Known about the structure:
Layout (H helix, E strand, L loop, with lengths): L1 H19 L3 E2 L5 E2 L8 E6 L5 H17 L3 E6 L6 H10 L5 E3 L4 H4 L9 E5 L5 E6 L4 H7 L10
Parallel strand pairs: 3-4, 4-5
Antiparallel strand pairs: 1-2, 3-6, 6-7
Amino acid sequence: MTRLLHCSFILLICSILTACSPDGIDSNGKSVRFSQYHGKWLVVNYWSWWCKSCYQEIDELNTLTHNYGDDVAVLGVNPDGMARLAMAEFATRKHIDYVLLANNPGDRLGVGEVDHMPATFVFSPQRQLVAKLYGLQTADQLAEFMHLKPHQKAS
C-alpha cells in the first residue's frame, strides 16, 4: 500500500511539473505557453536560414500579425537548432514582429518532425490542427483560410 501511495505521489508531481513547464522559450528567453493565445488562431511557421521562400514569408507573417493580431498569433520555429541569441539577432535584423521559438514544439503540438520548409501549421482557437501547408504562404491566403477580416485602425 505504501508503495502504491509513493508511486501515485510521484505521478502527481510529474503531472504538475509537466503542466507548469512552458511550451516553448522565445528568442528573448521568455517562456511561451500556448494557453496565452487562448481564443486565437495559432499559426506555427517552420523556417530555416537556407530557405529562400522562408525569407519571403517573413513579410507575409508580419502582415498577418499587424492586420489580424487580435484574432491570430504567429509563432516561428527554426528546427535547425539555431542558438537563441543568434535567433534574437536575426529577428532584429529581419524586422520580425512575431514570436520566434528557440525550441521545436512539434511534439507538444502533435506535428512531429518537420523536414520540408517552409511549413505552416494552422490551429483553430480550440487548438485543433486544421491545416498543414507547405511552401510559401501569403497573409491573404492564411487570413482567407481562417475567415479573418482586417481590423480597422483608428484615425
